[in-house]
Amino acid sequence: MSDLKFTNSTQPVPLAANLKAGFVIAANPSTDVWAKPPSTHRFNGPILHKTAPLSSFQRSSVHVHGEWATLYDQGGLILVMNSADGTQKWVKAGIEFVDDKPYVSVVAKDQWADWSLFPLTPGEGAGASARIEMAREKDTSLWIYLVEGGERRRLRQITWAFADEERVAECWAGVYAAKPAKEGGELVVTFKELDIELSA
């Protein structure tokens, strides 16, 4: 995966060995990946990704950890579909800090974003971690999983993810971090065991 690159960041790309062992992404305040009517479009969170045809995407997974402290602190997997006309659809899944505690969060953006939260294992505090997986199904769906104790727990099905592959110029498959709040310092999110599976 030496062809990884950053978007919205000047951070150096991690060494290949560190993709498994561990690496960090730092997000400055006022960064986000979000879209909400009537006119909110934010796409300035740092993203480390591979670029490929959407038809080649099979699955991605990562272990994510952070010292989540500020409302909407977040980090995890992301899959961005860049259309030839300049529009974007995306799916992000990871941990997000809401109501003073971390949750597993999934957001899917077609025209606008919609958001769902799932509780973490009881006892997980502000330094919570989780293993997240995105996987293509045999139809046009993308499934999001929380992996605990070797078991995949289904969280959400994105039915439209691969429905218009011919209209997608390229996809970005990787990980991201964001800190929508204006206050506080940067958010540093730790990732390890990153795996991005693309077909030939």
UniProtKB/TrEMBL annotation:
Gene3D superfamilies: 2.60.120.200. It comes from the Eukaryota. Signal peptide: none annotated. InterPro entries: ConA-like_dom_sf, DUF1349. It holds the Pfam family DUF1349. This is DUF1349 superfamily domain protein. It comes from Ajellomyces capsulatus (Darling's disease fungus).
